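Q&A log
Question type: sequence-to-structure
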Amino acid sequence: MTTTTPPRARTDGPPKAAPRKRARGRRPTAETADLRATLLDAALACFVRGGIAATSLRDIAKEAGVTPALVHYYFGDKAQLQEAVVTERLLPVVAKMRAPVMQAGDGDVAGLVAGFVHGIGTVVAEHPWLPTLWVREILCEGGALRDMMIRQVGPLLPTMMASRFAAAQQAGQLNPDLDPRLLMVSLIGLTMFPMASAPIWRQLFGADDIDFNDLRRHTLVLLDRGLELDHAK
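Response status: OK
Response body:
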């Protein structure tokens, strides 16, 4: 009796590639997003504490408790990491500040001002690092984020508000003696400066009892009624 040998599996065609070894420093996919967020938070903390120029990838790695190679793996170099911090940490904060401003209707100057003051107060309460970063990296000469402020943040908030103030002024809804651009500068001076200098004036005046909500209410009263006495009975 003849025995038939089963057909052998075909071996023609390109050979299968050997499994690639996971690159050193790579994390499982489930951990990737969390680790990336941790690195961004560590970078932001270092930028606020010591300044962007003085911060190295090694500093960020130490802050996050990882190796510098791992930071390099996720972001390439410091410039790309800085861009990611701006895109994923700073610009979303600006969007939060912008939201209450956009709720004010056309010509509603009081609503526009209140939206800005409330927006900044709320954001700084959630992200207390913002005033320090603003002073160090935008306000001071040579700040690493000044160009970003002018190109990206400017059209989103300050220049947009100045344009709305100008439109309200043309419609007779804003004091004609005011410059809409300087009005925006004044608003920033009445909000960001007090928040950035809070450690100084709190110590100077023994004002630890004043929080950002108190400061926000004070600013709105100052803008609404100035120094006039309230004679209402």
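Response note: The two ends are 120 Å apart (CA to CA).
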